[in-house]
Design goal:
Helix content: under 10%
Order of helices and strands: EEEEEEEEEEEEEEEEEEEEEEEEEEEE
Number of strands: 28
CATH class of one domain: Mainly Beta
Strand order of the largest sheet: 1-28-27-26
Distance between the termini: 28 Å
Largest sheet: 4 strands, antiparallel
Strand content: over 45%
CATH architecture of one domain: 7 Propeller
Structural class: mainly beta
Length: 351
């Protein structure tokens, strides 16, 4: 996942939605802005994750992991010495967390009660997405530059397998019932399927018509993957055979997807400053309910499955520098405007 610093020229509007009815017991499924949680600092960030049992939000933020108390919705601390951290996966049954530190090509294993690093697993180059395979008691680090997956023992960090990938990995998802790990291969327009017991790739599926797949979420009950693609599509894919059964339009610059099994809502957070909210009406029908205006740069998110609140990370940015005469223009997606110091924050949305 790319550090979330891109702008897409969208007006900074905090609230805006269209309401459509859904028949899942929620009379008003429309999301709206609730509040901002100030975090500060002036550096980039990446994935957000939630420990449902501890009511904590973790934010991968440059060289540290920031923590937010979800009951108070306030910043309560940080875990430092996490160089180039991209994500933080939670193992609630083990009371451990796993930080993918791209700057040192390692995963730090953190004891959640003491917030101390107890071990590190050596990975391939630049581990990005990271997840915990419950039941297997193993962690998976998806190495962006190494184009591989490092599988390690959750408790010790001992590497048990290195799985070569056909291209650059992005976000991943795990189905504990099927014992399968799914991962987007961004530069090949593919999804790979890994058997969590054998650590072998058992299937490779095209994401056509989706291109450059980034975010991924899973509905394990109905065997559906939700995949956000950079050609402004969210796919609903059958996780048993790779068939794309539905697509819906999303905003520009997707970097994360989420799914709420209680509401049957699928989300796409888009860097242009929108949140696409779609309803899984049936396992073969996906309908957009909202295109909620958020803020530019708000492309990574997490959902609290107990409160159904959505948390998005962003900041305020300085204007993009104008190239000097005679200087080749930098393509828009690669322009990284500077964060205005002290403006990094979490946006909270709810129904």
């Amino acid at each position: 996942m790319k550090k979330s610093l891109s702008l897409f020229g969208v007006v900074l509007t905090l609230v805006g939605f269209n309401l459509l009815p859904i028949s899942n017991g929620y009379a008003d499924p429309a999301y709206h802005f609730l509040k901002e949680i100030p975090v500060g600092w002036d550096e980039g960030w990446d994935y957000l994750s939630i420990d449902q049992d501890a009511h904590r939000l973790y934010i991968a933020h440059s060289s540290r992991i920031m923590m937010v108390d979800l009951t108070k919705e306030a910043l309560i601390g940080e875990i430092d010495e996490m160089p180039g951290v991209h994500g933080f996966a939670i193992a609630p049954d083990l009371q451990l967390g796993f930080a993918s530190n791209g700057g040192e090509s390692k995963v730090a294993i953190v004891e959640l009660k003491k917030l101390q690093t107890i071990a590190k697993a050596a990975t391939g180059a630049n581990p990005d997405a990271v997840l915990y395979a419950s039941g297997q008691y193993e962690g998976y680090a998806f190495n962006g530059h190494g184009q591989s997956v490092t599988v390690f023992e959750a408790k010790t960090g001992k590497v048990v397998a290195t799985i070569p990938l056909p291209g650059k990995p992005e976000f991943a998802a795990y189905d504990p019932t099927a014992g399968l790990v799914y991962d987007n291969i961004e530069d090949k327009n593919e999804v790979v399927v890994i058997n969590a017991k054998t650590h072998k790739i058992v299937n490779t599926w095209p994401t056509k018509p989706g291109e450059s797949p980034a975010g991924m979420a899973i509905d394990t009950e109905h065997h559906r993957l939700f995949i956000g693609c950079h050609n402004n599509l969210m796919l609903m894919m059958d996780s048993t055979n790779g068939k794309v059964v539905a697509t819906v339009p999303i905003g520009k610059g997707v970097d994360a997807n989420a799914f709420d099994p209680a509401t049957q809502l699928a989300f796409s957070s888009n860097g242009e400053g929108t949140l696409t909210v779609a309803h899984e009406e049936t396992p073969d029908k996906l309908t957009v309910l909202q295109e909620l205006k958020t803020q530019p740069g708000a492309r990574t998110m997490a959902i609290d499955l107990k409160t159904h609140k959505i948390y998005l990370a962003t900041a305020q940015f300085e204007p993009v520098p104008v190239p000097k005469p005679g200087t080749p223009a930098v393509p828009a997606p690669h322009v990284r405007p500077k964060i205005i110091p002290g403006t990094f924050k979490i946006l909270v949305y709810g129904m």
